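Design review, sub-item: ligand-bound model
Attendees: FS, YL, KQ
YL presented the inputs for the iron/sulfur cluster complex:
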Amino acid sequence: MVTLATTTGDGKAFISHAPGYWPDTAPELWNDWKWQLKNRVTTLEQLERHVDLSDEERSGVLLSGNKLALAVTPHFFNLIPREKNPDDPIRRQVIPRIEETWTSPYDMADPCGEDSHMPVPGLVHRYPDRVLFLVTDRCASYCRYCTRSRVVSGVGEQELHTDFEETFRYLEQHTEVRDVLLSGGDALIFSDDKIDRLLGRLRAISHIEFLRIGTRVPIFLPQRITPALCTVLQKYHPLWMSVHVNHPRELTIEVKEALERLANAGIPLGNQSVLLKGVNDDLETMRTLVHKLLMCRVRPYYIYQCDLINGSSHLRTSVAKGIEIIEGLRGHTTGYAVPQFVIDAPGGGGKVPINPGYILYHDNEKIVIRNYEGKIFEYPETGNENVQFAPQREYHDEYLYS
Ligand code: SF4
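KQ shared the predicted structure:
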């Protein structure tokens, strides 16, 4: 069924918009992931062929060429409604705006401090037992809030020169590394053969127990999740995958089927959302998103407070908003549907969980807690004579008065 995207939908239904803006495209081409990549929307002219841009968007597109490239797959572009609405949540994620050239005093090029933890070009080793392997700087489409916009898409202020052989040598020598996360960029835009070789090489290192792929390809380019790719991936279990969905409208019929193919290949799926102003910074949108994710066999895993990336201040929202969303989910819906809200501590401090205040008081004798309805309960603290901890209050005082 062909259904053009509209701004009025609440995003609850799984809808296919194919072929949408590309009505003359044969289904076999539409379903070919290489055709989707070749036909991405990358220029102002292509954009204006389909949608009326605002002045802010037109200026943003003209200036995006030396910051983070514009690219949107036809599949994802079809989620943008025809009517002029620069505030549409899908549009805000992928169409550049002039605000990207603004700088706020908090902005940083490398907000997670990755470059200073890179023992080999392309390998981030920040935590004791796990590494982040940046295998490419290319993605199927480019997210305007990308944490790695300094390198991703190849037009930003830095270049990524991953040294694969040196990385494999480093990993062989560092026996403490048991978990490798492949990211970038997006590893799933590689060919099946290249993915096979890469995962095979990592699996040959005996102390690496766990492989993960962080990817937005199933969302931007569901056609890429072919049975052949799934056959390659399932050779390398335990292999987990973190996908990246921000708004329920991104979960189309094609995306649901792609996620099901991955799940059927035995790949546990988690979702990471970024909290974005005007995209998903309200409880109702997030509730719909987490429920749809469970229907796609994806566990909502993290909601990230948007990193302090250069030019992203127009997409950032308050930390309080994230806490409010968790407060509205926890206890009110299925526990599996409730992600962990985190801030990636600026400068390289790692992910810090941020929760509503459920602990009202805690000392060596008792803990006083509140539930999702605001009711207060006391639980005795027994048998902890040897446990060293400071009541929360003391941490506050230390911070405030030092
Ligand atoms: S898919 Fe991930 S790496 Fe690529 S632009 Fe989006 S956020 Fe950045």
